[in-house]
Amino acid sequence: MAPDAIPFEQIRERAYELWERNHRPEGFEIEFWLLAERELRKERDRKRANEAQANPATDPGKP
Prior knowledge:
The chain has 63 residues and is mainly alpha-helical. The protein has a domain at 8-46. It has helices at 8-21, 29-54. The longest helix is centred in the middle third of the chain and has 26 residues, at 29-54. It is elongated. The N and C termini lie far apart (38 Å). The relative contact order is 0.13.
């Protein structure tokens, strides 16, 4: 698995939650999967950005 990949199980769980919240419609499996993956990526990216702001890396090459 690629280092930035979101685990299959995590996407599956989120897609199922979304499907249930939307009254379990039939025929929308791919849409819920893609939505789940998109949400998880945004959450991960937001978390990384917040961590980067809270803990800025010191770059010895910068003045």
